[in-house]
Amino acid sequence: MPPETTPLIEIANLRVRFHTPTRIVEAVRGLSFTLGREKLAIVGESGSGKSMTGRAILDLVPWPGEVLADRLAFRGEDLATMDRARRRALRGRRISMVLQDPKFSLNPVMSVGRQIAEAYRTHHRAGAAEARERALAMLEAVQIREPGRVYDLYPHEVSGGMGQRVMIAMMLIGEPDVLIADEPTSALDVTVQAQILDILDRLVTERGMGLIFISHDLPLVSAFCDRVIVMYAGRVMETLDARSLHQGRHPYTRGLLGCLPDLDLPKPRLATLTRDPAWTEA
Q1: What is the DSSP string of the chain?
Q2: CATH 3.40.50.300 fits 37-49+89-280, yes or no
Q3: Quick one: what percent of the chain has pLDDT higher than 90?
Q4: Does the global pTM surpass 0.90?
């Protein structure tokens, strides 16, 4: 077992590219970071490579996508050279990912409880009765009322907020060391969003997990996370302490912050983000 001082995730010079008939498209270009038992945010515009980074860690980039890295490790184990059976065993059990829209991520013809129980049985030797009991306990842990009733509901019968909680329960039932949350609150109203963040914060703290929080919401991550990586066009523009995000110095970070409305200091016109082609150069 690697010592506790070993980072949960180590990434050096990660590149994700897609081979097309006419050219190679670079989705992630030279990304490097480590993740400890902390909440790390990755922010940027759509297409900046945030979600692709999470998928690369989980080996979920299908051909014609290609993942290359000088180092891509989980608790000291090299994921790049690990065989597919071992990586499959880690996925869901040790590293999990909450996808953006539960309506498209959950199986529409299986009750949500059975899906959570199936996730548990995939990674543990357990009978149906034990899996059901653990699934009910997990539904209660993510603050779903009447877990016995919700267990038998189908995805189309639950609200967006409840569906997101079901996804979190499914990803956490294996008790992973790392959770990747891809826009887990983007489609939720403010009240439900706060509840989901509270659940994530509590579970990460209690279980000593590492969280990679992918988001567009700069004020949210500055209040919720410990560190922030700002990405643009597959590259890291800068890495900041979350509480100091408003002090970011890179022009891209300043541009993102300048586009935000401020109710205390209203502006007659919001700034328009100006992008420099030099930011994408090696």
Answers
A1: ---TTS-SEEEEEEEEEEE-SS-EEEEEEEEEEEE-SSEEEEE-STTSSHHHHHHHHTT---TTEEEE-SEEEETTEETTTS-HHHHHHHBTTTEEEE-S-HHHHS-TTS-HHHHHHHHHHHHS---HHHHHHHHHHHHHHTT-SSHHHHHT--GGGS-HHHHHHHHHHHHHTT--SEEEEESTTTTS-HHHHHHHHHHHHHHHHHHT-EEEEEES-HHHHHHH-SEEEEEETTEEEEEEEGGGGGG--SHHHHHHHHTS--SSS--SS-------GGGG--
A2: yes
A3: 47
A4: no
